[in-house]
Amino acid sequence: MIEENEIDYNTFILNIPSEYVSINKNNITQILGYNTLPEHIEEIFNEVNTEIRKKININAGYKIFDDFDSSFKEGISISNIFFYTNKIVKSQLDNIDKISAFVVTIGSEIEKWIKQLNERGELLQSYIVDIIASEAVENVADVLHDFLRQKMNQLGLNITNRYSPGYCNWNVSEQHKLFSILPKNFCGIRLTESALMIPIKSISGIIGIGKNAKWREYMCNRCDVKDCTYRTKVMLRRKKINTA
Amino acid sequence: MEELLNKITYCIERGKVNLSAPYPPDLRGQEGADELTLKALDLGLQPNDILNACNEGMKRIGDKFSRNEVFVPELLMAAKAMQAVMNHLKPYFQKGIVEKKGKFIIGTVAGDLHDIGKNLVSMVVEGNGYDVIDLGVDVKTAKFLEVIKQNPNSVVGLSALLTTTMQNMAKTVSEIKSNFPNVKVIVGGAPLTEEAAEKMGADAYGPNPQSAVDFLESLRVN
């Protein structure tokens, strides 16, 4: 069961057990490029998928902000800090009352493992662990997202999709602003000068909250990045709907 | 003899490392690049011919990857098979019996820790007969300049995954070009485009590992 602790005003830490992370083999298959996972890749997948669970150290948290302004053309303001999100993200945050900034991570043990596998020349295993780890951290973000949705639904509020610096034409350098409105070293994540999160397998972002907030699919057709994680997810979702 | 070399090419292309390797499943129980190379050397085949056979295998898999016929796992398996051959050819390189086609210095630029793309390029370029100096990740401009100075006839490959580090890449390209105007630079990574590469003064943009090989080969022709 997920436990929530309020560590400061409107600032929450979630205790998410690793059982909540479920790696979807079909997603991994398609991310790797296949329609069906080749036998030998499946063997490696099964092997590392069991091991990965032991190495995951989940940390997740979010802060809700009431001092939010979306009246700008190409961005939003949170706690008097202007985020130049660009139009795609901005357009999804109209008509919301509050906003939450969140971070999640699966820790740094996996990175060490990936490095060790590389050093041992186990290049394929290392690559597959990396792909599964990315899927795992997305999974944790999904869990937090869903937790927040249920919590807000109980209050009669809805939430939007989640948006992260570095995606949907929102420059990754804005990550510094996002971290500036969160407690220092929130969930054990720090930011490098180049806006890279350490541990690497971490996700940060924002989620809009409000009575009129709407969850909308990512607007990949308006974005230039063709090999984005979220574009792949959107395609997978569409494929599932079409084949259902 | 020709048949043996063809088998080595095939093992590289399919990523069959050695007899005990379970991958690929249809070649289970068969000799791999490791045993076939030893056999070829024992039979007196020229190391250079063995290397050429490997290069052909890497080229085939690299081309297939560029055409989306195979994916990263197949490329990694081929690189591992290639590594098995290189371990046997190492003494011949050291004695100068086999010569590499040229030197390629590669690294992920300052501030960036992503290495999958960089490693793939590194492996494919090496597998195509080049001496690769892999500087790793988060490589400062000064380090690139220092290594170029030590290896003046090299070609440089820069990798970046973030838009923030793409700016560092532009600075590195500019510094390399002002210090070593004749050194060719190829750039690649998720945020890069042909246009961005040109704008930062790079000589080429590599959207996939094989394009780096093609660029290096074009320099040899010219």
Mean pLDDT, all residues of chain A: 89
Strand order of the largest sheet of chain A: 1-2-3-7-11-8
CATH topology of the largest domain in chain B: Rossmann fold
The name of the CATH superfamily of the largest domain in chain B reads: Cobalamin-binding domain
Strand percent estimate of chain A: 15-25%
Biggest sheet of chain A: strands, sense, closure?
A: 6 strands, antiparallel
Q: Give the rounded overall mean pLDDT of chain B.
A: 92
CATH class of chain A: Alpha Beta
The chain-level structural class of chain B is: alpha/beta
Portion of residues in helices of chain B?
A: 55-70%
Described by the principal axes of the CA atoms, the overall outline of chain B is globular
Multimer state: heterodimer
What would you note in describing this structure?
The complex is a heterodimer of chains A (244) and B (222). Chain A is of the alpha+beta class and 244 residues long. Chain A has a single domain, classed as NADH Oxidase (3-Layer(aba) Sandwich). In chain A, 39% of the residues lie in helices and 22% in strands. Chain A has helices spanning 25-32, 39-55, 87-92, 109-119, 123-154, 175-180, 229-243; strands spanning 3-8, 11-15, 59-65, 68-69, 76-78, 81-83, 98-105, 158-163, 190-191, 197-198, 202-210. In chain A, the strands form 3 sheets. Chain A has a 6-stranded antiparallel β-sheet with strand order 1-2-3-7-11-8, covered by helices on one side. In chain A, a hairpin with a 2-residue loop joins β5 and β6 (81-83). Chain A starts with a strand and ends with a helix. Chain B is an alpha/beta fold and 222 residues long. Chain B has 2 domains: 2-94, Methionine synthase domain (Methyltransferase, Methionine Synthase (B12-binding Domains), Chain A, domain 1, Orthogonal Bundle); 103-221, Rossmann fold. Chain B has helices at residues 2-14, 33-42, 47-66, 72-94, 116-127, 141-150, 163-179, 194-199, 209-221, and strands at 103-108, 131-134, 155-159, 185-188, 204-205. In chain B, strands 2-1-3-4-5 form a 5-stranded parallel β-sheet, sandwiched between helices. In chain B, β1 (103-108), α5 and β2 (131-134) form a beta-alpha-beta unit. In chain B, α1 (2-14) runs parallel beside α3, α1 (2-14) crosses α4 and α2 (33-42) runs parallel beside α4. The two termini of chain B are 33 Å apart. At the A-B interface, α2 and α5 of A face α4, α5 and α7 of B.
